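User: Sorry, what's this?
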Amino acid sequence: MVETIITKLLTLPGIILGLSLHEFAHAWMSDRLGDPTPRRQGRLTVNPLAHIDPLGFVALLLVGFGWGKPVMIDAGYYKNRRRDEFLVAIAGVTMNLIVAVILSFPAKALMNMYYSSGSALVENIFYIVYYAVSINVCLMVFNLIPCPPLDGWNIVTQIFRLDRYRWWYKVYQYGQWILILLIVANITDLILMPGVTAIMHLLGF
């Protein structure tokens, strides 16, 4: 029980960082493309208070999946709606990948320091950074699943123009329930685990 609590505490920085920067990236991209909505809503900040959804945060901490406060956008401001919606959709997962890649370097350095020193302090710092890497990879892969309301749904929608079809609106309407069903049935794990394992391997873990 104590080890579980300690592990959860060590994952907190990674969860906060991953969720906050993911949502900030959506807001920043939409703002750059001419949409003032995220700026008006105070989302152009890396402050976690602007992006963390309490329920989504607790869910990620306890059961391994979660969400931040969705960034509201107004696609009517975009010059090229299809292209720009795609860019906004992919911004969040791209940010998670960038964070994971950057943090993988100090994580590997800390791992080597721990092996050579055996320091408990270095070990804890290593796990904080390592968990931040793995959480950002998990967030990226999870959000790429093509099911609403995840980013993957918006990405494939713009690539294949799925919103031309009548069934798209039905799937979008019931997307949250479909996603919950996929999670409960462990179908998401069939996508998540191989993807996360492959990326972590590429990052040297």
User: Anything to note?
Assistant: The chain has a mean pLDDT of 94. Residues 141 and 194 are 10 Å apart (CA to CA). The longest helix spans residues 81-117.
